[in-house]
Known about the structure:
- The chain has helices spanning 3-23, 44-58.
- The protein has 66 residues and is mainly α.
- The termini are far apart.
Amino acid sequence: MPLHEGSEIAEIRLSKVSETLDRLGLESERVRMMQINIMDYAELPGILDKFAEDLEEFGPNPMKGF
Length: 66
């Protein structure tokens, strides 16, 4: 299987996960998929920091009872 097919399958699966989360009343934005080139590895810490900031804005999961 060529690499791009794997990425396409992952995107389809993520969309199904997002739909399920939305139906359950959870923020589907808590799950995300990003693709970066191995040559762009230096960008990874910034990407993770941004995602962590986004999650902090959401606050605790409302279904967990915190």
